[in-house]
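Dear colleagues,

For the upcoming journal club I promised to circulate an example of a predicted protein-ligand complex. I picked one with magnesium ion because it came up in last month's discussion. The inputs are reproduced below in full, followed by the predicted structure.
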Amino acid sequence: MSANYEQLAADGLEQIGAPTARGQLDQIAQQAAAAGWSYSHFLGRLLEPELAARRQRVIDICLSFSGLPWKKRLSDFDFSFQPSIDRTLIEELATGRFMTEGRNIIFQGPPGVGKTHLAIALGLVCSEAGQRLLFLTALDLVRRMKLAFAQNRMPHFLKMLTTPKLLIVDEVGYLGLDTQQASLLFQVICVRYEKQLSTIITSNKAFADWGQVFAGDPIMASAALDRLLHRATVINIKGDSYRLREKRLAGLFPGAIALDHTQKGVIPTTKLRSPRR
Ligand SMILES: Nc1ncnc2c1ncn2[C@@H]1O[C@H](COP(=O)(O)OP(=O)(O)OP(=O)(O)O)[C@@H](O)[C@H]1O
Ligand SMILES: [Mg+2]
């Protein structure tokens, strides 16, 4: 009789979709018998690895759909190289509270100062909490929008951008948008603002120059900024490119690299692109 129930326990766990608990059942049952655990203690010990495995599966799915180009964490970030960044503020953002509050984050600064790195590190916080994240560059946005338009899938595309808990749009400003593209970005910002969903934007452009980003339309730019900045943390990074530091250390640029920061402190006159990581 008891052997039947043991089999039922094993089969039942399989049937209700708890393969991890099924795999550990015999071992945990033996531990329970040896240590004289209570029934609820045994059940808790059996469920623990099952729930952990489920959480991990959700995280893996979130990461695989996130579009993150690579994994970078705050622990990989050398704050001493970029003293203009308030480390305490970044660490506070990494608690993920900004997402619960529907706050946006704008990283501004010249090339190579770590805007994408920090955006990715915060994106990982979202995925690892089992929340949906979508990362894309402004260029991806334009490419995918053209495709969606050609395939008559614009409503689906808009939904894809306006449902994730966190949307990261990287490299806004390196590419001027045409009217249609600017108006899509504007719609995305409006919908996410209404839904109180957080957006992270990285940009080389000062806000005063966002008219150029929005198809030369300062009215649309200021309406977008009004919504974005209503609940936002703006991190303006002033400093040297970490990429060039690496190259300098490798002896490729023996001299000092002079980047021409404007009075706004964010825009170099030339964008020195190094090959992607
Ligand atoms: N302070 C830092 N500590 C460690 N790595 C850094 C730091 N700053 C940047 N990096 C690394 O340097 C490279 C360039 O950084 P990142 O791509 O984040 O720059 P960016 O500001 O987004 O530049 P761009 O405007 O050109 O996109 C990345 O590999 C990033 O991980
Ligand atoms: Mg970047």
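Two points we might discuss: Confidence is low (pLDDT under 50) at residues 255-277. The CA atoms of residues 57 and 161 lie 23 Å apart.

See you all on Thursday,
B. R.
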